[in-house]
Amino acid sequence: MADLGIPKNTIELIQKHQFVFQKKFGQNFLIDPHVLDKIIRAAQIEKEDVVLEIGPGIGTMTQCLAESARQVIAVEIDDHLIPILQETLKDYDNVKVIHGDILKVDIHALAREYHQGKPLKVVANLPYYITTPIIMGLFEEHVPVDSITVMVQKEVAQRMEAGPGTKDYGALSLAVQYYAKPYLVANVPPNCFIPRPNVGSAVIRLTCHTKPPIEVEDEKLMFNLIRASFNQRRKTLQNGLNNAAEISYSKEEIAQVIESLGLPPTVRGEALTLEQFGALANGFSRISNGKNG
User: Fold this and answer.
1) What is the pLDDT of residues 18-75, one digit of tens each?
2) Which CATH number does 219-292 carry?
3) What's the rounded mean pLDDT across residues 178-196?
């Protein structure tokens, strides 16, 4: 099989199958062997690993993964790519192509079937319009995953690894860092893809925590507080929480919990660390428990 990392071979294959890029699926195929190499190395794929690849496209990265892993499960939503994948992956007996939407696939069942329920490694060149729902879906469903190595829009990668007080810091930074340790592997310019995207890209590896770095009584409440405090960035934390429909505490209770953390009433949400948001949520949980107790 011709090396798909070489642009000429990718173009010939696409023309042979008369493949048309679908804007709705955000398709941009990687055509740079050096970047492919970086992704495979960053994902730290070993011989016993089972890899879940989201959006294999024409199978360029799938081939590389199949050479490193024991088993690759590739989930592709676009009907038109299935016959191409059957051709490009026919020499690999350790690849299973699933035609479906990753947001509807039962990943727990795949882990049981292919890896005795042990954690999978996720690798993907993600469509940028759906990056966050896919990554947050993997985390929130508590899918057995060891690490997630993905190509995403550069700005999204920067948000995932941003710290308090920076312009990129927000709800996504906190959510990702609650579940995983982010590491920015490489920036990738638009000329590494066909068609060229209009934005810069980056490869980021998220190494999943075996248990979250903080103890919080009510995860859902903590994420509601985080979202509410970043929905109106310019407002103080106190005002942001007061104005949020999903926060049911009184103005006095909000002021009391913020003060109990030793924070000034003028503090903004963007100044708080993950630990402080956890402490904030636990403060509100104590108030609720007091009411119910």
Assistant:
1) 777 666 666 788 878 889 999 999 999 999 999 999 999 999 999 999 999 999 999 9
2) 1.10.8.100
3) 91
Task: Tell me the three-class secondary structure of the chain, residue by residue.
Answer: CCCCCCHHHHHHHHHHCCCCCCHHHCCCEECCHHHHHHHHHHHCCCCCCEEEEECCCCCHHHHHHHHHCCEEEEEECCHHHHHHHHHHCCCCCCEEEEECCCCCCCHHHHHHHHHCCCCEEEEEECCHHHHHHHHHHHHHCCCCEEEEEEEEEHHHHHHHHCCCCCCCCCHHHHHHHHHEEEEEEEEECHHHEECCCCCCEEEEEEEECCCCCCCCCCHHHHHHHHHHHHHCCCCCHHHHHHCCCCCCCCHHHHHHHHHHCCCCCCCCHHHCCHHHHHHHHHHHHHHHHHHHC
Q: 7-208, which class in CATH?
A: alpha beta
CATH 3.40.50.150 in the chain is located at 7-208
pLDDT digit string, tens, across residues 138-155: 999 999 999 999 999 999
Q: What is the pTM of this model?
A: 0.90
